[in-house]
TrEMBL record, chain B:
GO function term, MF aspect, one: ER retention sequence binding
Name of the protein: ER lumen protein-retaining receptor
Gene Ontology cellular-component terms listed: endoplasmic reticulum membrane
Recorded topology in the membrane: Multi-pass membrane protein
Coiled coil: none
Segments traversing the membrane: 49-77, 98-114, 120-139, 151-168, 180-200
Entry-linked InterPro entries: ER_ret_rcpt (IPR000133)
Compartments it resides in: Endoplasmic reticulum membrane
């Protein structure tokens, strides 16, 4: 959900 | 996971293998910036702190993180020790403080939570955006580069470039936006514009990478 999302990208 | 991110990550992996291949086969790290490589180590170490905090995303995610940390440290070892005589520090003179300090300040200002891991995460995103500068500076100074070095830089640029359609896709499919990553990612990709122009018009046409005088 905006703005925060758990850092699931590299 | 979507196809843009997957291919982006694969381009990132490819860039590391291209770099290792260049160093191992030519037994030389000529034209490679130690400073850029050291900045990548800093980027991975500060971004992947969550590895040690028990946050679990996926097996893929953990494996890639460990690979990026391990391979970037190995590359530093190759430049600093195994092929140190082929490294020319007089070419690699970009001042990294100009990248580290602003990235850290931006990390302090723009973050999702004022905690150590979140500030470090933001710092790593900003630092990654500009970490290629010392490498591009060497290109600029020498005015030319071996084709394989340019393939390495191109793969790195493609990696972050592909994250942009990934974010657009995620915006529509998940309704989520990561403004810090998006802004830094667009800047990062933009830094490759001049390089890509020469790369696509010269190197991929079989000519040498030479900057116009």
């Amino acid at each position: 959900p905006y703005p925060y999302r758990p850092h699931d990208e590299l | 996971m979507n196809i843009f991110r997957l291919f982006g990550d694969l381009a990132h992996l490819a860039s590391i293998f291209i770099l290792l291949h260049k160093v191992q086969t030519s037994r030389s790290c000529r034209g490679i910036s130690f400073k850029t490589q050291a900045l990548y180590v800093a980027v991975f170490m500060t971004r992947y702190l969550d590895l040690f905090l028990g946050t679990w995303v996926s097996f893929y995610n953990t494996l890639m993180k460990l690979f990026f940390i391990g391979s970037s440290c190995y590359i530093l070892y190759l430049i600093r020790f195994q092929f140190r005589t082929t490294y020319d520090p007089n070419l690699d003179t970009f001042r990294v403080e100009y990248l580290l300090v602003p990235s850290f300040i931006l990390g302090l200002i723009f973050n999702y939570e004022f905690t150590l891991t979140e500030v470090m995460w933001s710092f790593s995103i900003f630092l990654e955006a500009v970490a290629i500068f010392p490498q591009l500076f060497i290109l600029q100074r020498t005015g030319e580069a071996e084709a394989i070095t340019t393939h390495y830089i191109a793969a790195l640029g493609i990696y972050r470039g592909l994250y942009i359609p990934n974010w657009i896709y995620r915006y529509y499919s998940e309704g989520s936006v990561d403004p810090i990553a998006v802004v830094a990612g667009i800047v990062q990709t933009g830094l490759y514009a001049d390089f890509f122009y020469v790369y696509f018009t010269k190197v991929l046409q079989g000519q040498r990478f030479e900057l116009p005088a």
